[in-house]
Design goal:
With 631 residues, this protein is α+β, with helices and mostly antiparallel strands. 35% of the residues lie in helices and 19% in strands. The termini are far apart.
């Protein structure tokens, strides 16, 4: 029989289908199983159209039969089968999908009626050709209920043949003769029981029809005799490889918390149960089901570049992507789970998605759902929320800061910070609600530890006035609140800001007079510390400490330290201002010292201020000598 040419633009197109579209060769099994499921759907739908007579839904199956002897993998189904014409049109024409044509016809015929429970998976005609990635020859035996059997055969090079064949049953059998193994390519793995079971579990576990395969089982041989070890034998047993009914498609009342927990542990490789489970079911312009989990702890590599974020993506129970990053914003990257939707526009390989409105709509809905569930947890189960926050606070804070604060308003009510007055974490709303009547700002201190924040000299006046102080110890904290700028119309004020707005007009005037009186001394101290500070001035914020060190301009010392620690930071310029407490005895003594002693005092005060700011000493040995001298 003469070989027929593929009805496509050129052999190059077929080569592209086989070698470029699919990034993983193992995908071929998912595609062939999906095609088999489609064929069964079509036959089942035709039976319903005839009143449901004939085969019961439980009679349908997909079977895998590997043979190392013949080096073949056979996929058999008892679906609708294909006529000679369909074999030529659907397999002989690349990117011509019989599934898509069937779905379009079914949709048209069912206008105004309730849609039957049939969800065909394939939308394009190239999935079948993925089998050529692993096969050097493919035979397709097929027969319809009211037609004769035929054999379609091709080596994937330049054409195919179709001829009558007495195939005994209704359905389709695809026989793949696998390529020979070569360096770097183990095609024989697709004949191994373990590999086939793993691929079905990974990609096709929720195909609604049983996927069967004979597998080896080790069973006891006869009765165990007393005093002798039990003998075992290996037998072949018909096994169903897939679970068929997705957990997320069962009604909520039918699924226990233990089942959710077990599903999470098994599928997302966590030894702990999830902190909480979120289930979403939406029907409308875009229909989808989502099953989401929030872990109790962050994985060890969560904050590394190599961590794989995203949700598993299914289309009618068939896994399309293992981690679809587009379904979650980065700040919710800790969420595990999956989305199953029949409405996504897949590209021809199913491995990538068209970035269309359906995907964006799902992602936007999920984002809002996760935020609302976290807020509900914060309001209703504070202990559980604090467990979550301890693990993933940085993600939320980075979300506030990222993209110039685009998501700040969306995330701000999820933030917690340590309250110096309450001695526990509080929300921004709780802080504002507890503010004193005369308090005009939200005050905070940033440092590398709680002790550092509480001990900042700059915070002394804030705490003396009875105002609460939020302690921020994560690197991103100060960047996040500066992006927020305010909360409930109350501006954020860092303890290190130049003007805290706490001094009255009388107090400001008195400080100006003291500064004028001390002008000569301040100039001399600036000269003593030349090259180390840009300015020396008096401060109205210090009530106990003699001095504090602040950054010049809008970048605080804590922000400077964070930026300095970044890779490839290089030399970052930073100018310091030394503030002195005019009421402190040490300051008053400065005016009585000789030039030499004053310079040493100035150095000692400056180095102390560096320590209080969390900066390293310029010269620890010299500082130690100064301390010993004045002791």
């Amino acid at each position: 029989m003469a070989k027929k040419q593929f009805k496509a633009e050129s052999k190059r197109l077929l080569d592209m289908m086989i070698h470029s579209i699919y990034t993983h060769k193992e995908i071929f099994l998912r595609e062939l199983i999906s095609n088999a499921s489609d064929a069964i759907d079509k036959r089942y739908y035709a039976a319903m159209q005839k009143g449901g007579e004939g085969m019961d839904r439980s009679d349908y199956f997909i079977r895998l039969t590997p043979s190392e002897t013949t080096r073949t993998l056979t996929i058999t189904d008892n679906g609708c089968g294909m006529t000679e014409k369909e074999l030529e049109e659907d397999l002989g024409t690349i990117a011509k999908s019989g599934t898509l044509a069937f779905k379009q016809a079914m949709d048209k015929s069912e206008e105004g009626k309730a849609a039957p429970e049939v969800d065909v998976i394939g939308q394009f005609g190239v999935g079948f050709y993925s089998a050529f990635m692993v096969s050097k020859n493919i035979k397709v035996y097929s027969r319809t209920e009211d037609g004769e059997g035929h054999l379609w055969e091709s080596d994937g090079q330049d054409g195919y043949t179709v001829k009558p064949f007495d195939y005994p049953t209704v359905g389709t059998q695809i026989v793949l003769t696998l390529k020979d193994d070569e360096e770097g390519e183990d095609y024989s793995q697709y004949l191994r029981e373990y590999t086939l079971k793993s691929l079905v579990k990974k990609y096709s576990d929720y195909v609604r029809y049983p996927i069967r395969m004979m597998e080896e089982k080790r069973v006891p041989k006869g009765e165990k005799e007393e005093g002798k070890p039990q003998e075992y034998e290996t037998v072949m047993e018909d096994a169903v490889l897939n679970s068929m009914v997705p957990l997320w498609k069962r009604s909520k009342g039918e699924v226990t918390e233990e089942e959710y927990a077990r599903f999470y542990r098994d599928n997302f490789f966590d030894v702990d149960d999830p902190l909480t489970t979120i289930r979403v079911s939406v029907e409308g312009a875009v229909s989808y089901t989502a099953l989401l989990f929030i872990p109790k702890k962050a994985p060890w590599d969560f904050f590394t570049k190599g961590y794989k974020r995203g949700l598993k993506l299914y289309s009618n129970g068939v896994m399309i992507m293992d981690a679809c990053e587009d379904l979650l914003p980065d700040y919710f990257g800790f969420v595990k789970g999956l989305v199953d939707s029949p409405d996504l526009s897949l590209n021809i390989s199913r491995e990538m998605l068209q970035h269309d409105r359906q995907l964006k709509a799902i992602a936007n809905n999920l984002k809002k759902k996760i935020q609302s569930e976290l807020k509900k947890m914060l309001d209703g189960d504070r202990e559980k929320y604090e467990t979550f926050y301890k693990a993933f606070a940085q993600s939320i804070k980075f979300g506030v800061y990222d993209q110039y604060g685009m998501n700040a308003d969306f995330l701000k009510d999820l933030l917690l910070f340590y309250s110096a007055r309450e001695e526990k974490d509080v929300t921004l709303h709780e802080y504002v609600a507890a503010m004193k009547e005369d308090q005009k700002a939200i005050y905070y201190a940033a440092g590398d530890s709680l002790g550092h924040c509480l001990g900042l000299p700059q915070a002394e006046l804030i705490r003396d006035k009875g105002y609460d102080l939020l302690c921020m110890t994560d690197d991103v904290d100060e960047f996040a609140v500066r992006v927020l700028a305010s909360y409930e119309e109350k501006p954020f004020k860092a303890a290190t800001d130049e003007d805290l707005g706490l001094a009255s007009e009388e107090e400001k005037k008195a400080m100006e007079e003291k500064a004028a009186e001390s002008k000569d001394l301040l100039e001399k101290l600036k000269e003593d510390l030349a090259g180390k500070v840009k300015e020396v001035k008096l401060s109205d914020r210090l009530t106990k400490s003699v001095a504090c060190l602040n950054g010049e301009g809008g970048v605080s010392i804590e922000m400077y330290k964070v930026l300095k620690a970044m890779p490839n930071a290089g030399e970052l310029p930073m100018e310091f201002v030394l503030e002195l407490n005019p009421e402190h005895p040490v300051f008053q003594k400065l005016a009585t010292l000789s030039d030499t002693d004053r310079k040493e005092y100035a150095e000692l005060i400056y180095q102390q201020a560096r320590l209080m700011a969390g900066l390293p000493l310029d010269d620890p040995a010299a500082f130690s000598e100064l301390v010993c001298k004045f002791m």
